[in-house]
Amino acid sequence: MKKIALVTGGSRGIGRSICVKLAEMGYHLLINYKSNEAEALHTKQLCEEKNVEAEIIRFDVGNKDEVELKLGAWLEEAGKEKIIEVLVNNAGIRQDTLLAFMNDEQWNSVLDTSLHGMFVVTRLVIKPMLMNRYGRVINMVSLSGLKGMPGQVNYSAAKAGMIGATKALAQEVAPRKVTVNAIAPGFISSDMTADLDEAELNKMIPMKRFGKPEEVAELAGFLASEKAAYITGQVISINGGLYT
Ligand code: NAP
Q1: What is the best residue among 8, 12, 191, 238 to mutate for testing ligand 1's pocket, by most ligand atoms within 8 Å of CB?
Q2: Does residue 213 lie within any of the structural domains?
Q3: How far apart are CA 129 and CA 172, in angstroms?
């Protein structure tokens, strides 16, 4: 039986680093992406360099029908040969604007990707984990979901929703040795933060710098490991001391 880690939004940024870390730990990778196939293939190559198997799978986590069609078919074909032991709900987007000017699309797309995406993907993957009596679910949330950020009412709501879901699901599945935790990064260098004024923001971060995707991946790797068996329902911040 092959042990698989599924990382949503694994084509770039934090998701890519997590894929590579899990590959180093010996997991075979199922790398989800939405549209950027070239980047997804690059992540696949980086994982294969760690001597594991990696495959890419395209679906929009916010589109229930697509998730059920694509991931459902993968799970059916996998049968008992492949088991997803680690799920990282990492896919996320920003659509920042003040609430007074926020249109429906800006609200829905952010909620659909983070919160609804986590729901539809986890619902499919959790059942085999429960049957296997082992699993790790890691939800990528944000400082915004803990603190609330002006200009990000949609994003803050999506991430805060994921935090509540993390805590509730953790209690549902703990008896079957499945853990569910959330990681709340502060500012991490990636395409998502490329448009921000890093020099200006660094002034308010006690560490005086943005974090690196690899640093988030180290935390994800620990939570995904067997060593983290007694940690569940937690939200762990990684933010250079910005907010705790
Ligand atoms: P990123 O560099 O913008 O990468 C986003 C990833 O998500 C890409 O792989 C993208 O796929 C994928 N994605 C976006 N929408 C998707 C969808 N509907 N279905 C499937 N995949 C989708 O972002 P990042 O900075 O690595 O962020 C990763 C996660 O960390 C997000 O949840 C984000 O909210 C969270 N986070 C980031 C920071 C930060 O400072 N960077 C801070 C706190 C939390 P394609 O390549 O196909 O577009």
Answers
A1: 12
A2: yes
A3: 13
pLDDT in tens, 184-243: 999 999 999 999 999 999 999 999 999 999 999 999 999 999 999 999 999 999 999 997
d(CA 7, CA 68): 16
C-alpha angle with apex 208: 202 to 211, nearest 5 degrees? Answer: 85
Q: Are 233 and 181 in contact (CB under 8 A)?
A: yes
User: For residue 244, is it within any domain?
Assistant: no
- How many distinct structural domains can be found in the chain? 1
Q: Does residue 163 sit within a domain?
A: yes
- Spatial contact of 230 and 52, defined as CB atoms under 8 Å apart: no
Q: Provide the CATH number for the domain around residue 194.
A: 3.40.50.720
Question: Does residue 142 lie within any of the structural domains?
Answer: yes
Is 155 catalytic? The answer is yes
